[in-house]
Amino acid sequence: MQLRYGFRLYPNGPQRSALARAFGCARVVFNDALRVREDARAAGLPFVALGDLSKRLTSAKKTTERAWLTEVSSVILQQSLRDLDSAYRNFFDGLKGKRPKTGPPRFKSKRDTRQAIRFTANAGWKITPGGKLRLPKVGDVAVKWSRTLPSTPTTVTVIKDSAGRYFASFVVETGPEEVLPPTTPEVGIDLGLGHFAVLSNGRKIDSPRFLRRAERQLKKAQRSLSRKDKGSANQDKARLRVARAHARVADARREFHHQLSTKLIRENQAIAVEDLAVKGLARTRLAKSVHDAGWSQFVTMLEYKASRYGRAFVRIGRFEPTSQVCSACGVQDGPKPLHVREWTCGACGAVLDRDINAAVNVAKAAGLVVSARGAQVRPGLVPAQRDEAGTHPKPRPTTARQAGIALL
Question: Which end of the chain is more exposed for a tag (fewer CB within 10 A), N or C?
Answer without folding.
Answer: N
